[in-house]
Amino acid sequence: MNLLDKSIKILITIFVLFLPLTNRDLFSFGIDFLIPVRIVFLILLVCIAFKAIIFWKKCGLSVLKKYLKTQAKDRLLILLSILWLVRVVSFVNSKNISASLNLIAFYTSMIVLYVLLKYIFSKDAKFSFFLFKTYLLSIIFSVFYALVQILSNLLLGVTLPGLLVGGNYYRVPGPFYDANHLPAFLITGIPSFVARGFYHNALWKKIILYASALTCAIVLFLTFSRSGFIGFGVSIIVALFLIIRYRYWAKLLIPLALVGFLILIVFLSDRTSHSLVDRMFSVFNQAERSTAAHTILLQGEIDLYLKNPILGVGYGSFSEHFRDSYYGQEHLKIDPTRDIRLPPHSIWLEVLTETGTIGFIVYCAIMFTILRKLLGAINRALNKQWRIYFIALFASVVGILSSGFFYSYNLELFWFFLFYSYLLAANYHRFTSNSGDADLNESEYVNWTEVLIPVTVMIVSFLVIFGGLGSNALIEFDEGIYGLIAKNMSSTGDYLVATVRSNTPWFEKPPLYMWLTAPMIKLFGVDAFSVKFWSAMFSVSTVLATYFLAKLLTRSRYLGVLASLVLLTTFHFLRYSRMGMLDVTVTFFMTLSVLLLLLARRRAIFWLLAGLSLGLGFMTKDFVSLLILPVLGLILFSYRKDYVFRKSWLFLVGFALVSAPWHIYTYQRFGFDFLNSYVGYHIISRFSSDIEGKTGPLLVYVDVLKNSLRIWFPILGLSLIFFITRFLGLRKLGLKKLNDYLSRLGFNRSPDFKVLGILFVWALSILVPLSLSRTKLIWYIVPVYPVLAVIISIFFADLSGMIFSQARRFNLKMKTEQLKFVIYTIILLSLSIISFIYLYMKWNLVDGRDFNGDMVKLIYIKQQIEPSGKIPLAFVDVGEAVPRFYAEGTVEIWPPEMLRSLGLIERTRYLIAKRDFAYKVMSTYTEENPLRIEASLGDFILMKRQGPE
């Protein structure tokens, strides 16, 4: 390969990388159309011209003519050339020849791009594949910059160039000039990321590709582009339809999981002022300026076409013709931007309006040719991998053509993707073996039971935990403090140092939960839902992790469902799932670390993931997460003779990667002040002494378990008895007759000592240290509930075995598996009905009294009366965190004696105090020194003290 060929390859690679850099304000060099991708293409054209001259001199004119004759047989090239001719002829109607010439120059360069890509496909298949990987890489870079744009604004309050902030929506354009162009770019990549993830053997590569697809979809939503939403929805529907059409059921799972996650995002967005649902349905809302303007554009385009049906108004001349029309004048009333050239906002209507019926027919023929070639490649694919790749490309092409009904894309990336997809479909047979897969058209088998059970567990958990979440206000102290810290982080942009009051550092807990909560406050606003969200989300995840843990330990889906049912109906677990506290979150990471470590025998990456999980737990509630170390040590000990044990160092690496940086930074910044508070007071002192009077007897947590487990508590007692006897063995305890009797009943099957040991050590490693600690709080033992749920489920396994054993004696005309299924289903349904009915009856124990709800409503009333926040709001005899979290402006916290001496305070103030105390104090005030009631709700009163300013 000579230097010129290498240069052409490098330039085309750079061209692909630069495709998204179209923001004229950021990337042009003083001339709007002179953006990086076009500069590179101009240089590329010069190199191609040199190569053509060298080729002509070397091979002669006859070879060049032969090459041109070959190109003349290319149907797509012929159609592209005809469209070029129609567009040139349409200049006769143009009112802006300069704009028309600019556009035809662009379109001509795209025809050259097609010829160049075709040449590359014919000469270098490996490089053609590399180009598409480069294209996907450019999508990742664009998404990264888009995330930087949105996070800089959300977390730091910095608006980077290109980001549009206004109204109820952020418009995230990434490196594009127009926020509607980024989603079209992402649509071309999302299906391909998923398709490539199917066929990578390395788990980490699969995770990266699926995560890339999900991140692209989230960023697409953040563009709030209605055309993007439509195109993305169409591409998903087309891809799913074709996968179902070929019965590739296993390939459905990841796309459906991504769709489910995106539906959750849409649902959550509806709680905010940035509602994706409202944005989508605004298409039909003529009261919205954008919708009204687009409607007038549509009417104007149709009117211009009807007046010029053959050749249209001239390629590139839509804006001038539209401005001079009646609809153009109406459009100015809504969008008074006379000096800006208007695009047609539709690739289809652009062609119809500017080049008339002739141009529209040719354009449709081009798109039909591309789609037909892709469909042919799908039908004639030699193996599943290629078929899936072409399904992804076909879905993307249909997606951008659908979004093109509502927006126009005179961009290099639009034509590059169309040409690449077509050429790959036309040439892929040269890159593969002649023999196809024998199972190409065979239906893929999926054990839907394995899929639907955890999905059902997740949905039920989500409904129970998220139902009415945030209806109760935050409470003092933990919820209010964590919410206030997160609010301070989001307002100041300082995420490394937690603060409650001004600049005073707060060292009680690591900041992970507050880091997660801060952007939720930005999105959902300052309310209880924002603070409680992650606790609820991790609660759902804990229930799901408990299902998989029980299933893994017992090899039974039935016991997995039972364990998740027990956990979901455990009152204290459910109560703290719906509160913005740390205990459920750390419980999830502790449970997940055990689950991942049990999987480490299968793949080395699970060592790293288990360490990362424990590290995240440590960043949630520091040393509490380390209570799980004995059971992790037991699992590690069981691996000591396995080859995989050599990878155990990855566990420590994962833990250190997550937990070390913040602790090192904080220690370097604050030194022993940090250690004395973080370790000395909040760890050592809490264990060795009763802080704030929060203590209890040694066995206090037995009462806590009784009140929390409720109907499961007696069963836990029986479970522990059978658990201990199975672990030790009845024969060893001298109870041979009881052992034989239980065996005849179906109880006391051969114990799996490893499973029993893990569960036994797990439960004790949490309960024993917390019981020995002098400071005791009921939520401290939340991390023990998952393992207790698994223990209880094992008891029901024994019970089910006894029932099954007895039922077989009746000679029922059922197969063994059928009988087991019936018995297990009856037991599971019965327990579900009983536990959920009881939960419903006692729901007040889960979501009880709203202690601060009335006070929060009074805060909002004050903010409506005096929205500026200039007049201070004082709270009398209440905690500090909740008022400071909800209230805006100046907030003061007073002891009761301050209200009695209010007459000495001259400045005007609003006050909130408890009703009984407020009425007693008000009786001491006179007309000359008034204290007026503004509003009262429940136990609280909002008052105003009018003083001289």
List the helices and strands and how they pair.
Blueprint: H1 3-17, H2 24-27, H3 36-59, H4 61-72, H5 75-89, H6 97-123, H7 125-156, E1 164-166, E2 169-171, H8 181-187, H9 190-198, H10 203-222, H11 226-245, H12 253-269, H13 276-281, H14 289-307, H15 318-323, H16 326-334, H17 347-379, H18 384-403, H19 412-427, H20 448-466, H21 478-492, H22 512-524, H23 528-554, H24 557-568, H25 571-577, H26 583-599, H27 605-621, H28 629-638, H29 649-670, H30 672-688, H31 700-709, H32 713-728, H33 736-745, H34 753-772, H35 785-807, H36 816-841, H37 853-865, E3 873-876, H38 881-886, E4 891-894, H39 896-900, E5 909-914, H40 915-922, E6 932-937, E7 940-945
Parallel strand pairs: 3-4, 3-5
Antiparallel strand pairs: 1-2, 5-7, 6-7
Description:
- By secondary structure, the chain is mostly helical.
- It is built from 40 helices and 7 strands.
- α17 (347-379) runs parallel beside α19 (412-427).
- The termini are far apart.
Strand content: under 5%
Runs in which pLDDT lies below 50 for 5 or more consecutive residues are none
Largest sheet: 5 strands, mixed
Spatial order of the strands forming the largest sheet: 4-3-5-7-6
C-alpha termini separation: 84 Å
Keywords: Cell membrane, Glycosyltransferase, Membrane, Transferase, Transmembrane, Transmembrane helix
GO molecular function: pentosyltransferase activity
GO biological process, one term: response to iron(III) ion
GO cellular component, one term: plasma membrane
